[in-house]
Every structure is written in C-alpha cells, then in structure tokens.
Amino acid sequence: MCVAAMAGGCADGTDRNNAGEPRPVPRSARVQGDLLKNAESALVQRCLTVRQVALPAVPSGSGTGSETGSGTGSETRSETGSGTETADGAVQPQQATGRRQFPYGIDDPAWAARHGFGGVPETGGGARGDGADARRTQQQPRTESGRRAAERQQRLTDAMFGSGRRELSTRTATGLVVTANSDGCLAQAQRVLYGDQARWFRTEVAVNNLEAAARHRVTQDPAYRAVLARWARCVAPVHKAEDPAGLRSVWQRRARDLDRRQASDLQQRYAVAEARCVRRTDLAGTGTRLEKRHAAELRAEYTDQIADHRRMREHGLRYAVQHGL
C-alpha cells in the first residue's frame, strides 16, 4: 500500500498560485496531511529515479486506500513503521461494515444485530487455516518470471525502506519496540522535509501511539476492570469470556467448524449479547471516560515530544510549499 501511495503522489512543480504569490501553508489538518504525503511521495520518487529503481505502475482508477497520520510510509514488514498499535482488549469491527469502531465493546445492540462483530469468518468450507495451503504453495517450483518479479520487488523494498540492520529504534508508551532503517529513500525524504529523520521517527512513533497507549491504560485501570468483571458475568449465560475480544475469539474458533450461514447466526448471537451487556454495565461509557483522563495524562508526559513533532511537521509543510511539492 505504501508503494502504491508513493506511486500515486505527484508534485505540481510550483510554489506560487495563479496570481504569482507564494502559496500559504494550508490551515486544514486534512489538507496539511495530504500535502506532507504528496511531498514525501515526490521526494521518494526523485530518490528512486536517482537509484534507477522503478515504481510499479498503478492501474488506472485504483485507489491507494485511506491512510492516517502524515504519510510516514509504514511498511509491510513486521515490527517497523509508525502506525498505531491495537489496544489490548479492543474490539474493532471492519470499517467496511457500518464505518464504526467500538474500542471497549459494541454498545449498540441494533448495530450488532445487523453487522455482528463486523467481520466475515473463515468457515469450514474455505481454507484449512492450519498453514497447509501456504506450505503447499511454497513447495511449488518458482517460475523464472516469478523469481525475477520477486527480485524486483525486493530491490524496490530495499531502495524504499532501506536494508540491513535497522539503525533506528524507539519504544512506544505501551512498551512496543519499533525499528526502521535510515538508508532508504523514505528516510532520505524525511530528512529533507523534517531536518532530522531520526528525531522525526522517534516523535512520530510516540505521537501516533498515544491513543493506543491511553486505551491500554484503560484496560489496566481498576475502575475499568471492575466494570469488565460485571460484563463477564452478564454475558456468561451465552458464553464465558473475560472481555469482548475474548468473546470474538471464541466465535472465530467455533466458526471454523460451521458453514457460512451458521457462523453468521452465531456471530449475531454473540455480538448482540456483547452489546446488551456493554449497555447494561456501561462498559463502553466507563472506558471512554477513563480514556479521556489517561489521554490527558499522556499528553502531559509527552509534552516535549508533541511540541518537537509539531515543529518538525511545520518545517515539512513550509518546505513543501516553498518547493512546490
């Protein structure tokens, strides 16, 4: 997705408007985010051109998907990038159904009756789910064209994100260690935009994970745990589970032995039970109130990093405008 986003970005090559005046830095946060993403894309493309590495063609009419943050280009390789963590115990239905998130359990029985948990299970009629299909695929002899395509993809990945030992490392507020290289085109683009790629990496990871950190603290808060225990007693007649995420895991395991209709019916039953008990115990309301408190505490703890991140972001915006990116 990051490669596609980079391919889709382009610069207009001018830092002035139609009246010949310098373009101002946009005020809208969304427009600012788009400007930084486009600027990174343009700088990355220039770097790849110098390195004689071509981006894959993006099919006409294809989108690059919705992204968050300011376009730091989180890659698909594990434990890297600056994306947001998932809080422990969070139940987040797929965005395609209902466009809603429920970090502390579904609190809308009507929504649950229509959408269940928001996902489609892998049922007994599909893949086995034990890795056998992947192993069989890996055992198939790779064609020469497939081998060349894999080599091209690896060269692009290395050029884009860097290769070898990851020189940058930082820890989020929840303790997750995030690493990245500093020799790729993305790192070079960030150095140009923000002045200091290592500092940008650390602050971007920190700031982007504050929401997840607040939610993690909520799940450890004694007040939340007390309400969660009441929720577990409420939902026990349907199925025993310690939290909403546990109930979803039970459904996913059971769904593997059911056909699609049976799995859907079971999903709806569990989801409605979850929502009714969340509503009855005020689990979601408690989580939301505690999250506001913990988020404020985290903002106070990370004041310096937040201010540093804002300064570097403003530097990137000014550079993008001045250079017509």
Task: Give an overview in words.
The relative contact order is 0.16. The N terminus is likely disordered. It is built from 13 helices and two strands. It has 325 residues and is mainly alpha-helical. A hairpin with a 5-residue loop joins strand 1 and strand 2.
Structural class: mainly alpha
**Quick one: overall form?**
globular
- The separation of the N and C termini measures 21 Å
* Mean of residue pLDDT values: 80
Q: Considering DSSP H and I runs of 4 or more, what fraction of the residues is helical?
A: 55-70%
Strand/helix succession: HHHHHEEHHHHHHHH
What proportion strand? under 5%
Biggest sheet strand line-up: 1-2
Oligomeric nature of the chains: single chain
How many helix segments?
A: 13
Low-confidence stretches: 1-14, 61-98, 125-137
Rg over C-alpha atoms, rounded to the nearest angstrom = 23 Å
List descriptors.
325 residues; 56% helix
Topology:
Blueprint: H1 2-8, H2 29-50, H3 109-115, H4 132-139, H5 144-161, E1 168-171, E2 177-180, H6 185-194, H7 197-208, H8 210-220, H9 222-235, H10 244-255, H11 260-281, H12 283-301, H13 303-322
Antiparallel strand pairs: 1-2
Helix pairs in contact: 1-2, 2-6, 2-13, 3-11, 6-13, 7-13, 8-12, 9-11, 9-12, 10-11
Could you provide a short overview of the structure?
The protein has 325 residues and is mainly α. The chain is 56% helix and 2% strand. The protein has a two-stranded antiparallel sheet with strand order 1-2.
